[in-house]
Amino acid sequence: MAYPIASNSVVQVTTRGLLFNQTVMNVWHWRWEQGTTPITDGANALEDLQAALEASGWRDSYQAMLAPQVINIYWDFQWIHPTRYVKRTNVLGPSGTAPDATTVTNLAAALEFRSDIATRRGSGTKHIAGIGGLTSAAGQISAPQLGAMDDFSVIHMLVPGVHGGFFRPIIFGRARPAYVDKHGNTHPALPVSTLPITSFNAQPTTRVMRRRTVGVGI
């Protein structure tokens, strides 16, 4: 059954693969900005977004950041705000295509995306898995790997035009109720935040990946 999508709705794309039988993943968000043509079928619009990301080189450049040992890469597309609909899953690629191999499971490159707002909700970091071997020497990431991260980031900041409107890459912050912390301090409620990405920074040093809660990220 087709379902309509309102302007300013948010799509979440989860990229995930296996690195030595451990799942590695990242979460990405786009905000739909309606133009001349409304979306009347949200599922078909997800297919259109996927096609736009493939045409822009997003998929290929994402794979180019990952070592060949990252395999069985999938991407999940899902409308998550203001209404959460069923996700759709497709194969992104069989493996990473970076030239350097890795034998390490827990080292990553850090790729930070930023908005123009200087708050904790104004930036977020992705951990790019499969760093090691020739890619990393004494904790420093090689120039080709940094170049691949820069290339991907430039493409990620593009704004695909679909249905006469746009999918804008954003930093997404979920709504949070007010709460009182263990020190008795009251923290106010926070609304949903959808801040457009305006800049990025590829960190030149490696980071250690740790287990994290699924869905946390930008």
Characterise this structure.
The structure is a single chain. This protein is of the alpha+beta class and 218 residues long. It has one domain (10-208). Helix content is 16%, strand content 41%. Strands 1, 2, 3, 4, 9, 10 and 13 form a 7-stranded antiparallel beta sheet that branches.
Strand fraction equals 35-45%
Biggest sheet character? 7 strands, antiparallel
Total count of helical runs of at least 4 residues: 3
Mean pLDDT: 91
3D shape: globular
SS-derived structural category = alpha+beta
**What gap, in angstroms, lies between the N and C termini?**
29 Å
Order of helices and strands: EEHHEEEEEEHEEEEEE
How many distinct beta strands?
Answer: 14
Q: From the alpha-carbon coordinates, what is the Rg to the nearest angstrom?
A: 18 Å
Low-confidence residue ranges: 213-218
Helix content: 10-25%
Task: Give descriptors for this structure.
single chain, 218 residues, alpha+beta, seven-stranded antiparallel β-sheet, three-stranded antiparallel β-sheet, 3 helices, disordered C terminus
Short description:
The longest helix is centred in the N-terminal third of the chain and has 15 residues, at 42-56. The protein has 3 helices and 14 strands.
Question: Helices and strands in order, then pairings?
Answer:
Layout: E1 10-19, E2 22-33, H1 42-56, H2 58-63, E3 70-81, E4 88-95, E5 107-114, E6 123-129, E7 136-137, E8 140-141, H3 143-156, E9 161-162, E10 165-173, E11 179-180, E12 186-187, E13 193-196, E14 199-208
